[in-house]
């Protein structure tokens, strides 16, 4: 054998040992627990940071939107300090507004005069405040970078607002009462009302007088003319692109039918967000349907001499109603199909399909007109004083060492506790192993182990002790059986040998009486051997049954008749009290076990006694009872009456008992049929043996 085999065997023994497995499992659980705890901590920290960032973004958006609104309504930043201070007090943040050259316009943390230098600016710019180039990531809308609150010269006076508001409310009342159309009048940033209506055509719009809302009033006339003059160079001159007022949005709308050209950059302000996928039909391609959320083209005449299609009364360029043709007027799509809330988004939308070049040019014209009426672009700085600039998820060297020390301490404690527990668990296991080895080395089944607790190991020790007791009883029974078998066979063999030797020596003559006595001894030997064979077959599961429907009454009558002569000779009355019961069983084996019970009862019932055989049905079982009025069985002997070779008479006298196998055979046959047998007795009053057998027959094997 190689020298390294013991080491391999020792390692294999250690690897498969309970101590190693428990220790490995505990360490694995500890590592998993630490990992899970760390992961959960990181997750919770990440969630907290995400939530905090969301709250910060909300606050920053609010501050940015407030300042953009201020810039849209003022020509400069002269009075913004009060707004800055209010925002700082409301949000708890430091708010700083500077020019694009980082000259401070207003600072919520600025000290009082003579109180010292102001704190330095935050390192990072939060956003650019420009109402004509709004950051689309900080506002909700349709992507127009001109803030809707920047109305400039289109702002109405209070008188103009009141007049238009009255017209709008009258129109809404008309739409609801005459046409049953739900409508609502809302006011835009310029003070001009817009009518939101679900459905309705140009006739209903004109009939309710809402076409008056399509006309500019007051300062809007001059502002509109100025805007169209600035946009006159945008696109093809024959396209007639122009801005007009629209009563459905309360703002401006672009009309015309321009050709599509290549995009050009807008240098007036930071470029607007380009369309996601502008699609322009080529000269030879048929025009595609316009997206209702973007633009709606105006049809052109097929030939120059053909008349233009009818224009709705509220559209720019509409003819006088008295001179209108009888053609059905075209209804322009509602801007609600494009912008869900008129007046809340951009004040400009288009009824025609615009190419990127025209769109950029028209947008630049609007910015150029609004630029003198809004505050110049400024840089916004937002700082949270409560937030540490060094905050982050990175661990310092001290923190990493501390975390590593905690992990190491947990692992050491896990190993120590696991080793202690495993040692206590293995102590009774080692005791069990030593006891088993002692039994294997010939120490006998008398070895016992001490039960220290009621846990799993304690129950294992109890089971081992019970197994040892069972083995000890089995060994005692084996020894007793050998002795009993020897005794049962020795007596008839000795008789046979003695009489045969006497006949051989001529001492006695082989007369018929002698031969009958010798034949009886031979039959006794045969009966003992047959009983032993039946028990062996039953133990091995090889005793075959031939189940068939059997009527218990005739079966009992037959057994009683077979023992009637013996009962008369013994002076015992044999009574049959069976009822009509049918069960599935092996007829021959039933006769055998009933004969054993009746014969045993007759053997232990004195003269003048009674043996009664009863049979009846009890639910799904057939019950057979053999009751005698004999000497009875002591209570301490009842558990052993079905043991092999057991006899109450330890002297094994033939006149007081048989071979000691009859009742053992009865139990084996009854259990083979799926039933049970019990014995009850009172000393001096008799004994009763009860059989319970299923009516359906023995279970399938």
Secondary-structure blueprint:
Blueprint: H1 5-15, H2 18-73, H3 80-91, E1 94-98, E2 104-107, E3 127-129, H4 158-178, E4 183-187, E5 193-197, H5 202-207, H6 219-230, E6 242-246, E7 251-255, E8 348-350, H7 356-370, E9 378-383, H8 397-443, H9 456-505, H10 512-540, E10 547-551, H11 552-562, H12 564-570, E11 573-578, E12 582-586, H13 587-603, E13 610-618, E14 621-628, H14 662-672, E15 676-682, E16 686-694
Parallel strand pairs: 7-8, 11-13
Antiparallel strand pairs: 1-2, 1-9, 3-9, 4-5, 6-7, 10-12, 13-14, 14-16, 15-16
Quaternary structure:
single chain
Helix content: 40-55%
Distance between the termini: 49 Å
Count of helix runs: 14
Helix and strand succession? HHHEEEHEEHHEEEHEHHHEHHEEHEEHEE
Shape category: elongated
- Structural category is alpha+beta
Instruction: Tell me the number of strands.
Output: 16
Estimated radius of gyration: 57 Å
Mean pLDDT: 75
Give the biggest beta sheet: 5 strands, mixed
Give the neighbour order of strands across the main sheet.
11-13-14-16-15
Assess the beta-strand content as a share of residues: 5-15%
Q: In terms of per-residue confidence, which ranges show pLDDT below 50 for 5 or more consecutive residues?
A: 1-7, 258-347, 388-393
Which keywords apply here?
701 residues, alpha+beta, five-stranded mixed beta sheet, four-stranded antiparallel beta sheet, disordered N terminus
